[in-house]
Specification:
- With 144 residues, this protein is mainly alpha-helical.
- It has one domain.
- Helices cover 53% and strands 4% of the residues.
- The chain has six helices and two strands; from the N terminus they run αβαααααβ.
- Strands 1-2 form a two-stranded antiparallel sheet.
- Helix 1 packs antiparallel against helix 5.
- 27% of the residues are buried.
- This is DUF1569 domain-containing protein.
- It comes from Blastopirellula marina.
- InterPro entries: DUF1569.
- Pfam families: DUF1569.
């Protein structure tokens, strides 16, 4: 599995080469989504995500191994705060995602519990978010 920094480099490479969109989101939209999700690990998730806390043991047992193996499930709807708009600029969102990745990697504190997986150590969190990024970026093929 790839690491988080390499996902930011992959987004930069896609921006430089151009890309073919296989899914529904552009590069800017994917990077927006990845950044907002990643930032919540530091800034905190919406309060209503705690309503799902009783399901964490099941989600952790069933989905976490898949995510960590690079087999992120497809078709799971996301909450509206993580859905990007249609007016995003690729370059700005790629840059913002890269900044978010560095912020995450350099953050000295502890991360907020993941809504589905609960408390994770730094290494596992990075693997989860790198896998999440790889999942979304695989729907964008370099044009060159």
């Amino acid at each position: 599995m790839t690491d988080l920094r390499s996902t930011a480099r992959e987004a930069e490479n896609l921006l430089g080469s151009g890309y073919t969109k296989l899914g529904k989101w552009s590069l800017g939209q994917a990077c927006f989504h990845l950044r907002v999700v990643l930032d919540c690990s530091i800034d905190g998730y919406p309060w209503y995500f705690t309503l799902f806390a009783p399901l964490r043991p099941i989600v952790r047992r069933t989905l976490l191994p898949r995510v960590l193996s690079g087999d992120s499930p497809r078709g799971i709807p996301t909450t509206p705060i993580y859905i990007p708009g249609n007016d995003l600029e690729d370059a700005a969102e790629v840059a913002a995602y890269g900044e978010s990745v560095e912020r995450f990697l350099n953050y000295p504190g502890s991360y907020h519990p993941h809504p589905g997986f609960g408390r994770l150590d730094r290494e596992t969190f990075e693997k989860v978010y790198a896998g999440h990024a790889a999942h979304h970026l695989r729907f964008l093929l370099p044009a060159v």
